[in-house]
Automatic annotation (TrEMBL), chain A:
It is found in: Cell membrane. Gene3D superfamilies: P-loop containing nucleotide triphosphate hydrolases. GO terms for molecular function: ATP binding; ATP hydrolysis activity. Belongs to the ABC transporter superfamily. The keyword Repeat applies. This is ABC transporter. InterPro entries: AAA+_ATPase, ABC_carbohydrate_import_ATPase, ABC_transporter-like_ATP-bd, ABC_transporter-like_CS, P-loop_NTPase. SMART domains: AAA. Residues 5-236, 255-499 form the ABC transporter domain. CDD domains: ABC_Carb_Monos_I, ABC_Carb_Monos_II. Its main location: membrane. Keywords: ATP-binding, Cell membrane, Membrane, Nucleotide-binding, Repeat, Sugar transport, Translocase, Transport.
Automatic annotation (TrEMBL), chain B:
One of its GO terms (cellular component) is plasma membrane. Keywords: Cell membrane, Membrane, Transmembrane, Transmembrane helix. It is a multi-pass membrane protein. The chain crosses the membrane at residues 21-44, 64-82, 94-110, 116-139, 148-166, 193-217, 247-267, 273-291, 298-316, 328-345. Pfam families: BPD_transp_2. It comes from the Bacteria. It is found in: Cell membrane. PANTHER family: ABC TRANSPORTER, PERMEASE PROTEIN, GUANOSINE ABC TRANSPORTER PERMEASE PROTEIN NUPP. GO terms for molecular function: transmembrane transporter activity. PROSITE patterns: PROKAR_LIPOPROTEIN. This is Sugar ABC transporter permease.
Length: 505, 361
């Protein structure tokens, strides 16, 4: 049997970067093949060429043994290549069925489409009501729509781009069951991820890219997570260094019965949340996306101002009625999940972005005038200390890659030495090396006596980073406990909304 | 077969940012020439009279100055507001109300003399412009009513107020029935700054206003606030800038400056309130703000360009009998081409051949 997909010498040059440098590998029929690499290693470029979004400058793509030119995604789908993107393209106000119908190349009567959707769902155990509005669905369910959409075309190759980053452990298991079933039927799967234990659990082969070059093709079951990570980043992996057995100080950030009103149509408000973070402590807030994390961050940062002064206190001072600027003066800095347009302004220079949150704490304003020299110096320090790949403080935030922008934003807040730092998704889409640097900076900040809250959907991150952990579900927060007291299953159940005996706290 | 594709630039292009306004003006000349030729005028001559005569004839320069002054002042205010994505379309109304308030002061102090009368008129004009702009600001921040509609509609109300006042309480007792106010006293008229011309104090004031606004917008927290709210409202909230307060500030600044322009205009060229006072400076200033790239320094240049079309339009009326509306057509074409060209600031056109399409996503 010919290889399902064979890439030979694929090269792609962008202005200033060689994104893919003679990459060659083979995907066999029914094989689950991992594509592994840091951000910027060239994974996305490579799959975009396979899916026809861009064309290689050199090299050959063979499909079932025949050389092909994949002119565009439509041509790719015609060949039998399906793709599930990391960011879903769904209309929230439409139903599942309507969303799928909109994405189909051929016009199919909606009744026929519905029966085909039901058939696919039945076969692969993808439970989903076609008539539900997307806005009411969890992220995991939304992903199922995208998978169903791809499966309706009976693909011979399914490309999955970072599919598990938003799923609970149980949802990940369900997804793997579907993928294994598909592979057993002969469909090849190209699985892009940087979560090594998932690749070990799921994949038959792993191709590792670094800096656009193919580093190794290996059997993940033979490798350790660490050996693969080291191939991925090219050097030895640094562990988080933390002083063992350190004691926590006095309660620093105390949140008492914090609730927010319903803001948007589809937002989940925070409902009666209480927790305490001591000096030197990192509290993790786990949860599936869309369970009130954004409202919690906004309520803590001051973007949403409540009506109870004492609902949030720092060192005993009630800050519940203060706005973001006043809270920053009190020592509370925050990083929201969305980088572009929320934590940073894409059109502004990095220097101007530093003025956004650091102007008061670092004296960048004198009598209403902005001291651009101070902003530039500080920005230069952030770029240097956090190894941000940028031309300098005058580069626009929008010109940075996602990972670099995140490093800049985290650096901008951490170097202000806040006494309380609240961050959401600190390493979302950031490569392993950068993530390790951000984690280390957070741990160091805590060691210096700050109280830190990390809101994340990445359980590995929370378990590695945090001292205590709580789970948010539908706006309610479980009691915080030392992170080592939780089992993965237990966290997963809490994320799914099974609070059990712990709800009373 | 060649195809063209728009491709996002990694950084907004500086060349296009400043190049497209120039290109818009040049294209307007070319298209205007074709358009007026097609309907039977001498198109080349029309473009020449409208765009070149005001520049080549030194006698017209003073007209340029006094036409550009109100456009620059109002355009500066609008560029501040538009930076913050606050769409004050009713500068014409705030300009009229400002002029009416200044007229009120001039009539109350009629017959008196003193250096203080003009400053009081200026303050009254600005305060009235701000007050009028605060109606859309209030409706927007409290009831989320679109400020484009409310500010625009209030313009028509202000025109009616002129008619009422000059036919009723402010009617000139010596005016033999003409609906106009009496001529202002000497102390309520703007002094000429260049003897023998009609260039009044408003012209240097306009340049100073624009320079101050440039400084404020680029160097102060106020300017930063406007820019960040316009560029990324969510980030502005995160940075501690309340949207409500920004809307108020933007409306008050643009309304106040429109009111100041109204005062300068009524105390300068008009020297009395007449039914023909509204000359659409408030609307033309919208074009000025955009052509000047919402940058007060650019607004100075753009104000002069639009003043050229006004002065040139009058020239063309007398020399080649071009209709009065021709000026409006040229101005509208300029705005249209400018906004259409704006896409090139963030995107570039790439030629792609079907077999090897290139480009980053």
């Amino acid at each position: 049997m010919p290889n399902r997909l064979e890439l030979t010498g694929i090269t792609k040059q962008f202005p200033g970067v060689l994104a893919n440098d003679h990459v060659s590998f083979v995907v066999k029929p029914g094989e689950i093949h991992a594509l592994l690499g840091e951000n910027g290693a060239g994974k996305s470029t490579l799959v975009k060429m396979i899916y026809g979004i861009m064309q290689p400058d050199a090299g050959e793509i063979r499909w079932n043994g025949e050389p092909v030119v994949v002119a565009n995604p439509k041509a790719a789908r015609k060949l039998g290549i399906g793709m599930v993107f990391q960011h879903f393209s769904l209309f929230e106000a439409l139903t599942v069925l309507e969303n799928i119908a909109l994405g189909m190349d051929a016009k199919i009567p909606s009744r026929e489409l519905e029966s085909r959707i039901r058939e696919v769902m039945e076969t692969y155990g993808l439970a989903l009501d076609p008539h539900r509005t997307v806005a009411t669905l969890s992220v995991g369910e939304r992903q199922r729509i995208e998978i169903v959409r791809a499966l309706l075309l009976n693909p011979q190759l399914l490309i999955m781009d970072e599919p598990t980053s938003v799923l609970t452990p149980q949802e990940v298991e369900q997804l793997f069951t579907v993928l294994r079933k598909l592979a057993a039927e002969g469909c090849s799967i190209l699985y892009i991820s940087h979560k090594l234990h998932e690749i070990k659990a799921l994949c038959d082969t792993a191709t590792i890219l670094r800096g656009g070059k193919l580093v190794d093709t290996c059997d993940p079951k033979e490798e350790t997570s660490r050996s693969m990570a080291e191939k991925m980043i090219g050097t030895g992996l640094k562990d988080i260094v933390r002083a063992e057995g350190r004691a926590f100080g006095q309660p620093k950030l105390v949140v008492n019965r914090l609730s927010t009103g319903k803001t948007g149509h589809f937002d989940v408000p925070v409902d009666n949340v209480s927790f305490t973070v001591r000096a030197g402590e990192i509290l993790g807030v786990a949860g599936v996306a869309g369970n009130g994390q954004n409202a919690l961050l906004d309520a803590l940062s001051g973007e949403l101002i409540g009506d109870d002064r004492e609902a949030i206190t720092i060192d005993g001072h009630g800050i519940g009625l203060m706005n973001t600027t006043e809270r920053r003066r009190q020592g509370l800095c925050a990083v929201p999940e969305e980088r572009n347009g929320h934590a940073a302004v894409g059109d502004f220079t990095l220097s101007d972005n530093s003025v956004l949150t650091a102007r008061d704490r670092l004296g960048m304003v004198m009598m209403g005038l902005i001291n651009s020299g101070a902003a530039k110096t500080y920005t230069g320090k952030v770029i240097a200390d956090f190894a941000v790949k940028a031309l300098g403080p005058a580069s626009t935030a929008g010109s940075l890659s996602g990972g670099n922008l995140q490093k800049y934003i985290m650096g901008r807040e951490i170097l202000q030495k806040p006494s309380v730092l609240v961050v959401s998704q600190p390493t979302w889409g950031v490569d392993a090396g950068a993530a390790a640097a951000i984690h280390q900076a957070l741990v160091d900040l805590a060691a210096a006596g700050s109280a830190i809250v990390v809101i994340s959907q990445d359980l590995d991150e929370l378990r590695a980073l945090c001292d205590t952990l709580a789970v948010i579900n539908m706006g309610r927060l479980s009691a915080a406990r030392p992170v080592k007291d939780f089992s993965v299953e237990e966290i997963g159940l809490l994320m799914g909304g099974v609070h059990g005996s712990m709800e009373t706290a | 077969m060649m195809r063209y594709r728009l491709e996002k630039r990694p950084e907004p292009s500086k060349l296009m940012l400043y190049g497209t306004p120039v290109a818009a003006v040049v294209l307007t000349m070319i298209l205007g020439c074709l358009l007026f030729s097609a309907i039977g005028y001498n198109g080349l001559r029309a473009v020449q009279e409208i765009f070149l005569t005001p520049l080549t004839n030194p006698y017209k320069w003073q007209d340029l100055g006094i036409k550009a002054a109100p456009l620059i002042i109002i355009g500066t205010g609008l560029s501040v507001a538009y930076r913050a994505n606050v769409w004050n379309i009713g500068a014409e109304g705030q300009y009229i109300i400002g002029a009416l308030a200044a007229t009120g002061v001039a009539l109350m102090t009629w017959g008196m003399s003193g250096w203080w009368i003009l400053p009081v008129m200026a303050i009254a004009g600005m305060a009235a412009g701000m007050a009028y702009a605060s109606i859309p600001a209030f409706l927007k921040t409290r009831l989320n009513v679109n400020e484009i509609l409310t500010s625009l509609m209030l313009t028509y109300a202000s025109v009616q107020l002129i008619y009422y006042l000059i036919r009723g309480p402010w009617k000139d007792p010596m005016g033999i029935g003409f609906p106009q106010s009496r001529l202002f006293s000497e102390a309520a008229r703007l002094p000429n700054i260049i003897p023998g011309t009609i260039v009044h104090l408003g012209v240097p004031i306009a340049v100073i206003v624009a320079l101050i606004a440039w400084f404020v917008m680029s160097k102060t927290v106020f300017g930063y606030r406007m820019r960040v709210v316009g560029a990324a409202p969510h980030a502005a909230r995160y940075g501690g800038f309340s949207e409500t307060r920004t809307i108020w500030l933007a409306m008050l600044v643009s309304g106040g400056l429109a009111g100041l322009a109204g005062m300068l205009e009524v105390a300068g060229p008009f020297q009395r309130m007449v039914p023909g006072f509204p000359t659409n400076y408030g609307f033309t200033a919208i074009i000025v703000a955009f052509l000047g790239r919402l940058n007060p320094l650019g607004v100075i240049v753009a104000g002069v360009v639009l003043a050229i079309t006004f002065v040139g339009g009058q020239v063309a009326q007398t020399t080649i009998g071009l209709p009065d509306e021709a000026t409006g057509i040229f101005q509208a074409m300029m705005l249209f081409l400018l906004l259409a060209g704006d896409i090139l600031v963030r995107y570039r056109i790439r030629r792609v051949s079907p077999e090897a399409s290139v480009g980053a996503a």
